[in-house]
Design a protein that fits this description.
Blueprint (H helix, E strand, L loop, with lengths): L16 E4 L5 E4 L10 H14 L1 H26 L1
Antiparallel strand pairs: 1-2
């Protein structure tokens, strides 16, 4: 049985928060926006929330991340020799 860890995170009224659950569920907290234009950090979070719900976009991000991790590993290996 998994134990829950106690975690406390303080966010302000204008912050955005994502919690990625092990079961694949994502909890998102967006601030109430009354300003125009929408703040950049909220637009970035909206783009991320779209990306994680669109299978094709999410796969593209995963592939690019994996490729970058491989590239970083190769660079490190070359520098260690």
């Amino acid at each position: 049985m998994k134990r829950k860890r106690k975690t406390h995170m303080s966010i302000s009224d204008t912050d955005v928060a994502f919690v990625f659950r092990e079961d694949g569920h994502v909890d998102v907290s967006f601030p109430e926006i009354k300003a125009d234009p929408v703040p950049d950090h909220v637009m970035a979070a909206l783009a991320l929330s779209y990306a994680i719900t669109d299978p094709q976009t999410l796969e593209t991000l995963r592939t690019r991340f994996a490729n970058q991790q491989l590239l970083n590993s190769l660079k490190k290996a070359c520098n260690d020799t």
